[in-house]
Design goal:
The complex is a heterodimer of chains A (101) and B (595). Chain A has 101 residues and is an alpha/beta fold. Chain A has one domain: STAS domain (Transcription Regulator spoIIAA, 2-Layer Sandwich), CATH 3.30.750.24. Chain A has 3 helices and 7 strands. Chain B folds into 3 domains: 147 residues, Heat Shock Protein 90 (2-Layer Sandwich), CATH 3.30.565.10; 170 residues, Beta-Lactamase (2-Layer Sandwich); 228 residues, 4-Layer Sandwich (Phosphatase 2c, domain 1), CATH 3.60.40. The longest helix of chain B has 47 residues. Chain B is elongated.
Chain lengths: 101, 595
């Protein structure tokens, strides 16, 4: 189950995302915006269970990244599976998202 | 998905699958999962499966994304065939089609779209796109890894996957139904926004709808107390006489997810893996199962917490249900803030009305005109501060051409102060036999008013003066009031005359001394309230008795009649105060002996 937890240091942690595609990215964005108040600088997405992401899902992450960049923030992708990491590399998106570790 | 899955031999060494997919995004996932499983059953390695799934999702998404109204009625067809050395996919769409670009470039990294074709091309060995009238065909192919071996499709596994797909579709239908219900409920609530709605009743109805639509079993709604220190309980569902949730002190030691959510401005989930602590008051309502506590705000001001609970251990709330909680509670928060604004407006209206009444009373107490008292000439003023105070003055004919002058300041402001001023005025006027004995008059008035004043812890300072034109003198007595200021012709300084006794309402049997002050020709005398001596300038500095005495002496020297004197003195005070707000009433009576 997806979970959003904002901490006092301006980090919104998102866990439990298994798939981000055209069919759920609008819901994901809407849900995220409920938590994305002005104090949030970093959206940290735990990708441990994220097994599938399509071009619309990536577009959604880029939208969030641009929104955060406007306030000097960023999207951080943690624990990405090799398949997702390869995809990000193929599309050169590993240049704009922070990938850890 | 209207699937027509068939596994058949296309050529001797190839197997194939054909799917008809409804032209909508929600159908794409199920269809591509079916293809993925079918390819897995045909022995494709995991790395290839991911690539095929993504390429097909991108291709079919395009077929849905660019479909017009007519095309949406027609299915997208996926045909896939798997041979010993390669896999080929054919996707038939009914869009207007497009020209496959000679070069498929990657868009800029910050572009939010335009990666679909690049992905399709990158994940396959060859792509062709054939346009024709009414339908188009995209053909993708990719070589199989050399180690792959052909495995016959597992029909049982395929059936299981289809069953899973059916389940997913059922869940989506249920979610759609709940979205419809919540929309209907929200439209109903929106009609009540801004209206005079009973908050308790509104919140109960809203919470009941929320519990039902979000498939919860129980809910607790708490609001922050007006002093911001407690979370008060507004609603508990299901309501029961056996369950009462006491208010929670925000700074207290009670371990509670509601306080945690309020302090950290976050939603807190709890369930079998992260249960409520043994001391958490919520346990009375939701002892087992899952729950989520949402702290809600309006314009960054904390308003309260709403907690939903579900008693079944195996069914946590979904993201969509938490979304419902947020949406419903946002509506409630708006209604709460509206109700508070209405309350504040009502209080402000009542206060304004009260001040108006007090001002009317105070104005009615002042004499319409000041009787003549030759050779003395009098002028008086009463300037009210923004909040109506308790100053008043009175000038009463006292027989033989004499006048009784009264100046008083009732402690406090508003209607109570104005009412006591009215009572004092009537009491004094009811004792004309004592007008020439101001001390006795004050003592009698004190005995009369003491019970009422002491009961409400109020008091009155007053100065009474008997102005005797025959003997050219003034006889004064004071109940805790400012002294009489006197300036005599030829003097360089003015003099403050008078003893201060207890204010009225402090001691029941107080006696008040009388002082006789001769007022020879040219003399200027003044009765006043402390609003004059306590005037403050913009820096907050108080004028003080001495400075007032100096201003009074200047007034006596520079003016000849009391009307001009009043204008001069009030002008000086206004200059001193500048832009500072008048903090207290300013009342004065000037008496000039015209020679």
């Amino acid at each position: 189950m997806m979970k959003f937890v904002a901490d006092s240091e301006g980090i919104l942690r998102v866990t439990g995302l298994e798939r981000l595609s055209v069919s759920n990215c609008a819901d994901f964005k809407m849900l995220l915006q409920l938590y994305l108040n002005e104090s949030i600088q970093i959206v940290e997405l735990d990708c441990t269970g994220l097994r599938f992401i399509d071009s619309d899902g990536l577009g959604t992450l880029i939208t969030i990244q641009k929104k955060l960049a406007a306030r000097s923030g960023k999207v951080r992708l943690q624990n990405t599976l090799p398949v997702v990491r390869q995809l990000l590399h193929l599309l050169r998106l590993d240049e704009i998202f922070e990938l850890t570790p | 998905m209207n699937s027509e899955a068939a596994s058949s031999a296309r050529r001797e060494f190839r197997t194939s699958l054909r799917l008809k997919v409804a032209c909508e995004f929600s159908a794409v996932r199920s269809a591509t999962l079916v293809v993925r499983d079918w390819l897995a059953g045909n022995g494709l390695p995991e790395a290839d499966l991911g690539g095929w799934e993504l390429a097909l999702v991108e291709a079919v998404n395009n077929a849905v994304k660019y479909a017009d109204d007519r095309a949406r009625l027609l299915p997208v067809i996926i045909e896939i065939s798997c041979g010993e050395h390669d896999v080929e996919a054919r996707i038939t769409d009914h869009t207007a089609g497009f020209e496959w670009p000679a070069e498929v470039d990657l868009p800029d990294t910050d572009s939010e779209s335009g990666r679909g074709l690049f992905l399709i091309k990158s994940l396959t060995d060859s792509v062709s796109y054939l346009r024709s009238s009414g339908e188009n065909l995209m053909v993708l192919s990719k070589a199989r890894a050399a180690s792959a071996k052909e495995v016959l499709p597992d029909i049982t596994e395929l059936q299981n996957r289809l069953a899973d797909t059916e389940t997913a579709l059922t869940e989506m239908t249920t979610e759609l139904a709940s979205s419809y219900e919540s929309l209907v409920a929200l439209f109903r609530y929106s009609s009540e926004l801004g209206a005079h709605t009973d908050l308790k009743d509104f919140s109960q109805r809203l919470l009941k709808d929320l519990v039902q639509i979000a498939e919860a079993d129980c809910a607790v709604l708490r609001l922050i107390s007006p002093d911001g220190k407690r979370l008060d309980t507004l609603q508990v569902l299901p309501s029961s006489e056996n369950i009462s949730l006491p208010a929670l002190a925000l700074a207290g030691t009670t371990v509670s997810v509601e306080i945690g959510a309020a302090r950290n401005r976050e939603d807190i989930w709890f369930g079998p893996e992260e249960p409520l602590s043994a001391d958490d008051p919520l346990r009375a309502v939701m002892p087992v199962g899952h729950g989520v506590c949402h702290a809600f705000y309006v314009a960054n001001q904390f308003v309260g917490t709403a907690t939903l609970g579900r008693l079944m251990a195996d069914k946590p709330f979904t993201a969509a249900q938490v979304n419902l909680l947020h949406t419903f509670i946002d509506f409630l928060a708006i209604q709460i803030v509206n109700a508070r604004l209405l309350d504040e407006r009502t209080v402000a209206r009542v206060t304004r009305r009260e001040l108006q009444i007090a001002a009317d009373i105070q104005r009615s107490l002042l004499p319409a005109q000041i009787p003549a008292c030759p050779p003395f000439e009098l002028s008086a003023a009463c300037q009210s501060a923004l909040q109506v105070g308790g100053d008043f003055f009175d000038v009463i004919p006292a027989g033989d051409g004499a006048l009784l002058l009264v100046i008083a300041d009732v402690m406090g402001k508003g209607v109570p102060a104005a009412l006591f001023a009215a009572v004092l005025r009537s009491t004094l006027r009811s004792m004309p036999q004592l007008f020439d004995q101001p001390g006795e008059l004050l003592a009698t008035a004190n005995r009369t008013l003491y019970p009422d004043l002491s009961r409400v812890d109020m008091f009155v300072t007053a100065k009474i003066a008997y102005l005797d034109p025959r003997h050219k003198k003034i006889v004064t007595a004071s109940a805790g009031h400012c002294p009489l200021l006197v300036w005599r012709p030829g003097a360089t300084e003015a003099e403050a005359v008078g003893q201060t006794g207890f204010p009225l309402g402090i001691e029941p049997l107080t006696r008040y001394a009388q002082i006789e002050v001769p007022l020879p020709p040219g003399t200027l005398a003044m009765l006043y309230t402390d609003g004059l001596s306590e005037s403050r300038n913009e820096a907050g500095e108080m004028l003080g008795e001495q400075k007032l005495l100096e201003l009074f002496a200047q007034t006596a020297v520079q003016t000849t009649d009391p009307h001009g004197g009043k204008k001069f003195l009030l002008g000086q005070l206004a200059d001193y105060c500048g832009q500072a707000t008048l903090a207290d009433d300013q009342t004065l009576i000037l008496i000039r002996h015209n020679s």
